[in-house]
Amino acid sequence: MEWLEQVKWDDQGLVPVIAQEVGSNDVLMFAFMNREALCKTAERGEAVYWSRSRQRLWHKGEESGHIQKVHEIRLDCDADVVLLKVTQLGHEPGIACHTGRHSCFFNVYRDGQWQVVEPVLKDPERIYK
After folding, report:
1. What pLDDT digit, counting tens, does each position of 4-16 carry?
2. Is 39 marked as a binding-site residue?
3. The pTM is what?
4. 77 known member of a binding site
5. CATH no. for residue 37?
6. Can you give the residue range of the structural domain that contains 113?
């Protein structure tokens, strides 16, 4: 698969991935993919990542139901970062973060400290049983 060879994989065989919501353009999360994850994402039309903590493929939403439908896969100019344009499914509004928030980027630096600016949409205890 020539298109996979055009990606600049790091020493661990991974590439950073940004998931961005179609429509709002909100950055939902950051993760990694290996070749198999990127290939499965392209085949399924749903985000599949490489979980560094679990050391295995991770189909986004496999436990939570918060699946990411992939509309587009983009590669940056240096071929070392992948951008997924997704619709976040499973809850309205979509929950991408394991904390139960819409986005993993819910902390904003203001006045010398990090401030939480997004509410918890669903208690993680109820998401991950």
Report:
1. 999 999 999 999 9
2. no
3. 0.91
4. yes
5. 3.10.20.810
6. 2-127
